[in-house]
Amino acid sequence: MCHGADLSGNFQTPSLKGRLVASWAGTPLSRLTGYIQRAMPLMAPGTLSPEDATTLVAFLMRENGASPAKTALPITEKRQASLKFPALTIQPDTSPSK
Amino acid sequence: MTNRNRNIGRRHLVAGASACSLVGALAGSRLLHAQTPSVSPTQALTPQKPRIRLQPFDLRADQITDIKVCLRPFRPMGPRFDVEHVGSKLVFHNYGHGGSGWSLSWGSASLVVEKVSTTLQRKVAVIGCGIIGLTTALTAQRAGFDVTIYTKDLLPRTRSVRANGSWTPDSRVSLTAPAGPGFADLWEKMARISWATYRDYLGLPGNPVEFIEHFVLSDRPFNTPHEESPDGRTGDYASTGMPQHGTEFARYSDRIKDIVPAAEELHPSENPFAAPYAKRNTLMLYNFASYGHLLMSEFFQAGGHVVIREFHDPSELTSLPEKIIINCPGYAARDWWNDKSLIPVRGQTAWLPPRPDLPYGLHYQGASAVSKTDGLMVQAYDLNNEGEMGSVGNSFEHPDRSESERAIKVLADLFARSPLSEG
C-alpha cells in the first residue's frame, strides 16, 4: 500500500526499486531483514516475523532483477549475515517495441 | 514582511496615552478582573476600535495542491544530546526535538557544536539533512569546521519540510517529569539562541523567515481552563511508559516571554470574526522553499560537501573518514539507531495555492490556516479536542484527505459567518 503496487513509491514514500539497490548493495541480507522487522510497516513496526521479513527480502531482490537461486533464502540471521544484497545492473532493452 | 503587501490594520495605540496612564490601566484591569472574572480586562477597558479589515481566505477542498504528513520525533526526556563511541569514532547526538525542531534548531546546533569544539578536530561528519542536520552543519562551519553532510535525502524530501514550520519552541518537546528541571534551563538557552539567530534571516528577499499577524479565536473566554475530551486513559508516563494526559507535556514558553511578542485580546468592536473571543499576536514562520534553498546555498558557499548515503547500522560509521560525527537523523533514529525512546506524533498539513497578498493566519476549533509564501497551509491540529495527546503514538505517515477537508470546512464556515465577509 505505502510503496505502491509497482514499488515506485511517491514523493514522501521511498521507491523500493532503483535507489534501493544503491542503498543496500553489498550489505548483509541479515541487516535488511532486521531493518524491515524493526521499522516496517511504518504504522506498526515490529509486527513482522523473521519468515515474513525474509520473504520480503527475497521479493525485493527478485523485483530488482536478481536471478532466482536454486534454494530458498535461509531464515536465520547467522546464515543471512553471510549473504549480501547483490549489485544489480540494468540490462539493455532488447525488446522490439522500444 | 518585505515584498508582501500589508492591508491589515496594525495595533492602534491610544493617541496621547502616557506611560503613567498605561500603568494605571494595568492596575485597574487587575482590580476589575478580580471582581468580574468572566469579562476580559482588555475588553472592559479598551475603547472601541474600528473593525480590523481582512480579506477572507478562499478555503475549498478542491483547491488542495498537496497533503504532507510528518512524524514528530518526540522523546519524553527531551532531545538526545549524549556522546557515544562507535569503534574509533565519537558520535554526538542531536535528535528528538518533537514538535520544536524548527524552532530550537539553531540553539540545539550551537550547544552540540560547543561540545564538538572541545575535540580539537577540524573535520566533522553530520548525519541527516533535515532542519537539525542542516543548521548543525552551518553552525559547525561557522565554528571553523570542515563539514560533510551524509544523508539519505535532501531538504525537499526530508521529514522536516512536512512540518508546520512556525515558532512552536515547546510543542511536545518533552514531558515535565522525565525531562526534569535541568532540561528547562537547557531549553531556555536553545530557544534564546535560536530566536536571536532567526533575526539574521528576517527581511531578506523571498522571506525565508518572517512574522505574520495571527489570530487565535475561541467560542469560550480565554481564561476558562482547557478541558480535553475524556478518553478513558489512566496512569501516566511513569506507570505506563507512554504519556497519558496532556498535562504531562512540558510548557516552557513563559521563560522567554521577555523577547517573544505577547498576544493581545481584541475588543469585540475590532474582532472581524464570528468567534466571540479573539486574540492577535505575531507569529514567526519558516518558509520552506526560500529558507531551505538559502541554507543549502550558505552551506555550499562555505565549502560544505554533501554525500548521499543511507546507513543501516551504527557500525557503518566506522567507514567514514571523519572521526567526529554529529548524528541528526530525526525520527529515523528509531530505526537507524534503534532508539525506542522516540515516540511518533503524526502531523498533517494541506496546502492550497499561495496567497502572499494575505499575510495572516488563524486558529479556531482545532483548525488553523496560515499564509506562507509556498502555500496557504491548513492544519487539523486538534479537531477532536484531544489537546497535546492528539496523534501521540500514531506513525501512519500517509495523507488522510478527510482530515484536511474537515479543517477546511471548519474555517470556511467561520469565514462565511464572519463580518469580514460582508461587503
From TrEMBL, chain B:
Under InterPro entries, the record lists: DAO, FAD-dep_OxRdtase, TAT_signal
Its UniProt entry gives the catalysed reaction(s) as: a D-alpha-amino acid + O2 + H2O = a 2-oxocarboxylate + H2O2 + NH4(+)
What this protein needs as a cofactor is: FAD
**Entry's Gene Ontology cellular component terms:** cytoplasm
Q: Which residue ranges have biased composition labelled Basic and acidic residues? A: 225-234
The terms under GO molecular function for this entry are: D-amino-acid oxidase activity; FAD binding
| Signal sequence residues | 1-34
GO terms (BP aspect): D-amino acid catabolic process
- Where is the region Disordered? 222-244
Q: State the family it belongs to.
A: Belongs to the DAMOX/DASOX family.
Descriptive protein name: D-amino-acid oxidase
Organism name: Gluconacetobacter asukensis
